[in-house]
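RECORD TYPE: inverse folding
INPUT: structure tokens
STRUCTURE:
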């Protein structure tokens, strides 16, 4: 049994809270959000215990690990406080909202005998497992190009309005969405090099990108990033791996297709929940079991590419 506390009870904090709570080997010790009304509401809804301050949370010996789910700008200082107090950490993506902050976090974590994990759920999901299997089995021959396309009719999306998600310093679809796929590309293919990137911003200097078109490479495989918002098309997110014998498409987070000259097959996926798998992997890591975790180093490399794309 491990004791976990949560900082940040917004959209994602509330999404993960019940998964922690329902896990037989995890106990939620306490929760904290700077918004006191929200804290009370969440504590009533899920029957968890609030603390009056983060230092109260971090001084509690029953807390072995902290899940940090606040906006990106606040990750660095809080993550350092968490690790300084000797607690393991599961941090939200993007690791930070500048390369410098991400590097500080990565270096700080490296020197500590603590688990530093990140919430990149795709990595733990059934689609990525099959994606890797198909590539390992050379189902599409020689890889000719990797392409990430993200079309968002609106940014912010109507169901995810908050004070920071369309701000130039913390938000935008490249940080919020592309980050997930950059981490997967790094994991499977190796580190990306950006050759050129053109990010377009709206007139309001405080708002996030509306268009991105960039080229890069990994070990001589060309890579294209193409993202737009304000388009008359439903949301469409696709990572395509183009090969001499076929194409793999990873579509809208959970659908996987294998295409060749004659057909397009949707790949059947195991029904397990990626976020449960992530949380369970984190728990196992805290208990000293050998598991694969996306760590701060992977988070740093994702931030590096995201910030290079944004210019
Ligand atoms: N991994 C994923 O799939 C995924 C999905 C959505 C969001 N996220 C990431 O999760 C993080 C939070 O996103 P969100 O959508 O929940 O945002 P949100 O704005 O809905 O919630 C953030 C919460 O943090 C609280 N907060 C802000 N500053 C704080 C502080 N200093 N101390 C304590 N609480 C503080 C706010 O009051 C709010 O309740 C971001 O980094 C975001 O990119 C990840």
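DESIGNED SEQUENCE:
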């Amino acid at each position: 049994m491990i004791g976990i506390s949560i900082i940040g009870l917004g959209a994602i904090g509330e999404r993960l809270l019940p998964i922690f709570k329902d896990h037989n080997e995890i106990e939620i010790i306490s929760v904290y959000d700077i918004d006191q009304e929200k804290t009370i509401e969440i504590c009533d809804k899920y029957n968890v215990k609030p603390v009056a301050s983060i230092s109260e949370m971090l001084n509690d010996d029953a807390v072995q690990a902290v899940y940090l789910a606040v906006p990106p700008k606040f990750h660095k200082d809080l993550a350092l406080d968490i690790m300084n107090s000797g607690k393991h950490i599961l941090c939200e993506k993007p690791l930070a909202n500048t390369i410098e902050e991400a590097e500080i976090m990565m270096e700080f974590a490296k020197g500590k005998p603590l688990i530093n994990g990140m919430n990149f759920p795709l990595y733990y999901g059934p689609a990525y497992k099959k994606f890797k299997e198909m590539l390992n089995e050379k189902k599409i021959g020689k890889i000719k190009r990797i392409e990430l396309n993200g079309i968002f009719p609106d940014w912010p999306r109507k169901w995810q309005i908050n004070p920071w998600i369309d701000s130039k310093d913390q938000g935008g679809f490249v940080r919020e969405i592309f980050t997930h796929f950059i981490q997967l590309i790094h994991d499977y293919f190796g580190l990306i090099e950006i050759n050129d990137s053109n990010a377009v911003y709206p007139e309001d200097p405080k708002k996030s990108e509306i268009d991105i078109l960039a080229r890069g490479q990994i070990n001589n495989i060309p890579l294209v990033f193409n993202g737009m918002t304000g388009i008359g098309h439903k949301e469409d997110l696709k990572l395509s791996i183009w090969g001499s014998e076929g194409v793999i498409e990873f579509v809208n987070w959970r659908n996987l297709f294998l295409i060749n000259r004659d057909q397009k097959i949707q790949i059947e996926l195991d029904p397990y929940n990626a976020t449960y798998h992530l949380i369970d992997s984190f728990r196992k890591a805290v208990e000293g079991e050998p598991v694969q975790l996306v760590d701060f180093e992977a988070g740093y490399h994702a931030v590096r590419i995201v910030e290079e794309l944004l210019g």
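NOTES: Residues 173-189 form the longest helix (17 residues).
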